[in-house]
């Protein structure tokens, strides 16, 4: 052991410190430069958020926008433009008018603001035009759209309504300020009123035709056809295509309401299921102290027995096929067959299976013989981790702190992203039903009526299309979004690193307590949290920064890959696939290295690079122990998650489907019983994962402490072993008394 410590193949361990008796509490600040960089980046991130919140408007995402670029159902919007893009009474024209006219214009605008606030729904003049391919290009239907107080509930044409008592009802679906001083042809040509009203229902704040099926036939009201307002009758399927283009799923709102109803009647039962999952997770961790060895050895024996049965079954099939016609054909002569069942009728197939299973059986038995001691060490460490968690029980609640901080990061990132994406200006484009050569070109709604485009295309409209911009700020939006995503990754990784260092410090204080639990600090978790923030913020920021750089590169590669999917360049696709694979592997390796580096930071208080190097070489000098412990803990955690999630999920299934007779009348009636069941299953998995992540951090911390204990100490009075009595017994190690020393 002495020679191995001095001449390690993967590096030299730290120098011996005769006064070392546990984690170093006399710490200093590490990686201060990275701490300063993090603070400066946070200040810049706050500045980006303020800029985004100043220029952005989330109403552009939430509320529908009419043809003038105004929000439906919102106060404070100004109806300065009519539906064809003609300027109304804006600030410029008010200055040129007389004082009385200015007051009248101001009152007219105020009236329109109030009216628009009470109009929450968007009405399409001709929903059929939403089936145009232009919708996919401009994200806007090439038809006038206005905000209305409610969707039409009757079938009317403009020709019929003009000469009837229904005209007052019809006028509310015309453009604001419409006056009946034009002929029918002029009104329809100028787009002042829709040609026809169709019974509609609101969906996602938009009016869509109230289409329903009766005996397999699509109908609106009691009709299978409708008059388009120009004297022609059309089929209802034209409305369906337009509605599908304008909104993808017509029944989404109904589905969402049913799911919401299920949550309202089952939420307390869902909470009870999650509490059961929490209790089972805690119970499983406690039982690992007593059953870890039994579960591991039962698993190994079961694998050996299963492989043994497989060998026996292959031999029986091999013997049964002896003498059958065609069973002696070789695999090479048979060649490749799409029906794999053909291979099961060949003796050579079963012989190959038997040889492969026999080799696996021999390998597992040999590994069991030579790695028996290391398996016992892994089991002892798992049991010791269960004791450590029992003494630092508040560590089980720390994932809630991490979850809360991650929620803050996600909320800030999401809100900033939304405000940045909605900080563009309204862009207006030319829409025309005919063959206007200027269609889809940008326009200015104030100057459009007197422009050359308007003269050449009399039926064209300068209509709101989407939000964009050409200023320097708008050109920098993509860079700001990338910076927003990068800072999210950096801060999220920093929060995770803080949790890992805190837990590692708490569990390391348990291991390095010579008399457990008497030498434990009063509040080990809070002490570790304070040390991490006070001394090692820079080191945590350094590790999180490296990981964030790799993750943002992966995001950019995914974005480029989506852009290159339509390309036919096979070399570019191959190169992109290789880059994605390499950076995926790099991210996994950095996560592994960071985790162990944070443990070394918690133990010794060294900087990030030193801790990462020492942890890496320490693990490489004990690579077999690392592999055995990793696989044993992975198996136990997988078994625990399957047990907890499966048990709670089955219980939830039988309960919500009314299959438990004792509580059959207690279960609430549901529209979709899978809604609470899936919620309980996903919540149980997250709870089990949170508990086991703490337990896994405890195992990894104790393992590194155990390896350091072996290399630093020799059992003398000056350097006693800090490991538990079980581990000392397995390794034949003892602590000498002071007199003997």
TrEMBL record:
Catalytic activity line of the entry: choline(out) + n H(+)(in) = choline(in) + n H(+)(out); ethanolamine(out) + n H(+)(in) = ethanolamine(in) + n H(+)(out)
Protein name as annotated: Choline transporter-like protein
Presence of the UniProt keyword Mitochondrion in the record: yes
Quaternary structure, from the entry: Interacts with COCH.
Organism, as annotated: Pongo abelii
Superkingdom of the source species: Eukaryota
Residue intervals passing through the bilayer: 32-53, 267-287, 294-312, 350-371, 391-414, 487-514, 535-557, 597-620, 632-656, 672-692
Localisation per UniProt entry: Cell membrane; Mitochondrion outer membrane
GO MF terms held by the record: antiporter activity; choline transmembrane transporter activity
């Amino acid at each position: 052991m002495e020679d191995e410590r001095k001449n390690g193949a993967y590096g030299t361990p730290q120098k011996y410190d005769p006064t070392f008796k546990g984690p170093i509490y006399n710490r200093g600040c590490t990686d201060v430069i990275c701490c300063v960089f993090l603070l400066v980046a946070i200040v810049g991130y706050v500045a980006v958020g303020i800029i985004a919140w100043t220029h952005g408007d989330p109403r552009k995402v939430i509320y529908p926008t009419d043809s003038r670029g105004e929000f439906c159902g919102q106060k404070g919007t100004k109806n300065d433009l009519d539906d064809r893009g003609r300027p109304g009474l804006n600030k410029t024209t008010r200055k040129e008018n007389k004082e009385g006219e200015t007051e009248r214009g101001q009152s007219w605008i105020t009236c329109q603001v109030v009216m628009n606030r009470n109009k929450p729904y968007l009405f399409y003049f001709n929903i059929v035009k939403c089936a145009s391919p232009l919708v996919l290009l401009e994200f806007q239907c090439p038809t006038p759209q206005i905000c209305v107080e409610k969707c039409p509930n009757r079938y009317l044409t403009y020709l019929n309504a003009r000469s009837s008592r229904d005209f007052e009802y019809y006028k509310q679906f015309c453009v604001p300020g419409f006056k009946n001083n034009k002929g029918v042809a002029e009104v329809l040509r100028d787009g002042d009123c829709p040609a026809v009203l169709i019974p509609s229902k609101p969906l996602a704040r938009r009016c869509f035709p109230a289409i329903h099926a009766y005996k397999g036939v699509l109908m609106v009201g009691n009709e299978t056809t409708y008059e388009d307002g120009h004297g022609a009758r059309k089929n209802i399927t034209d409305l369906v295509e337009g509605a599908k283009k304008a909104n993808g799923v017509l029944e989404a709102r109904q589905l969402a309401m049913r799911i919401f109803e299920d949550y309202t009647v089952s939420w307390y039962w869902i909470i009870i299921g999650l509490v059961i999952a929490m209790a089972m997770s805690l119970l499983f961790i406690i039982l690992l102290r007593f059953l870890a060895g039994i579960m591991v050895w039962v698993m190994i024996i079961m694998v050996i027995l299963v492989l043994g049965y497989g060998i026996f079954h292959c031999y029986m099939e091999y013997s049964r096929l002896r003498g059958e016609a065609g069973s002696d054909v070789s695999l090479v002569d048979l060649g490749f067959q799409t029906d794999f069942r053909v291979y099961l009728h060949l003796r050579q197939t079963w012989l190959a299976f038997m040889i492969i299973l026999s080799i696996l059986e021999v390998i597992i038995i040999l590994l069991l013989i030579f790695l028996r001691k290391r398996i016992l060490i892994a089991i002892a460490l798992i049991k010791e981790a269960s004791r450590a968690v029992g003494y630092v029980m508040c560590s089980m609640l720390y994932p809630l702190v991490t979850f809360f901080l991650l929620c803050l990061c996600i909320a800030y990132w999401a809100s900033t992203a939304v405000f940045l994406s909605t900080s563009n200006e309204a862009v207006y484009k030319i829409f025309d039903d005919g063959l206007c050569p200027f269609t889809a070109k940008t326009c200015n709604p104030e100057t459009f009526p007197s422009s050359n485009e308007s003269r050449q295309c009399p039926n064209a409209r300068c209509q709101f299309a989407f939000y964009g911009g050409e200023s320097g700020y708008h050109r920098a939006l993509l860079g700001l979004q990338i910076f927003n995503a990068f800072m999210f990754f950096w801060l999220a990784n920093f929060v995770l690193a803080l949790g890992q260092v805190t837990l590692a410090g708490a569990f390391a204080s348990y291991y390095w307590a010579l008399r457990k639990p008497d030498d434990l600090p009063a509040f080990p978790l809070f002490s570790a949290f304070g040390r991490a923030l006070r001394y090692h913020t820079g080191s945590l920021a350094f590790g999180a920064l490296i990981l964030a750089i790799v993750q943002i590169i992966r995001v950019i590669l995914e974005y480029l890959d989506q852009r290159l999917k339509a390309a036919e360049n096979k070399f570019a696709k191959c190169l992109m696939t290789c880059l994605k694979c390499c950076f995926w592997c790099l991210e996994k390796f950095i996560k592994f290295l960071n985790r162990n580096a944070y443990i070394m930071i918690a133990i010794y208080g060294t900087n990030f690079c030193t801790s990462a190097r020492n942890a890496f070489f320490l693990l490489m000098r004990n690579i077999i122990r690392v592999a055995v412990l990793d696989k044993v803990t992975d198996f136990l955690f997988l078994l625990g998650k399957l047990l907890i999630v499966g048990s709670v999920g089955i219980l939830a299934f039988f309960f919500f489907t009314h299959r438990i007779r004792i509580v059959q009348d207690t279960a609430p009636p549901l529209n979709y019983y899978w809604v609470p069941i899936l919620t309980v299953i996903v919540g149980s998995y997250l709870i089990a994962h949170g508990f086991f992540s703490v337990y896994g951090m405890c195992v990894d911390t104790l393992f590194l402490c155990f390896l350091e204990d072996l290399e630093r100490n020799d059992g003398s009075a000056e350097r006693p072993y800090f490991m538990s009595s079980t581990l000392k017994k397995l390794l034949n190690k003892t602590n000498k008394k002071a007199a003997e020393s």
